[in-house]
Amino acid sequence: MAFVTGSVAYFSHYSSDPSFWLLPPLIICAHLFIGSFYGRRQLPAAFAILIAPPVVLLMTVGFGLMFSDLHRADVNPVVMGMVWVSLFSPGMLALTYAFRAWFGQIQFAVGR
Known about the structure:
The chain is mostly helical. The chain has helices at residues 2-11, 23-35, 48-70, 77-102. The termini are far apart.
């Protein structure tokens, strides 16, 4: 996720626009924000819990499509979008799990 968004933001023709430079850290922080909705010590459930994951995934897939275009991948955009979704969805789940582990929200049962 960070490599794809960073490559598009910093090494493509989009890099001339300074607003693109802030998008990789923004997307990483957005993924961590999503992780804060789950676990024992979680933010209060809100409507954002339904909206944030698909919106952030859509933004990340958009960067994946721009990355494909940057490397001139000659594949149908719908198929390429499905490929990026299949790559980024497990990544979002892994980052949510890692966020919970970093902040001690995952409890381990010690032998009884």
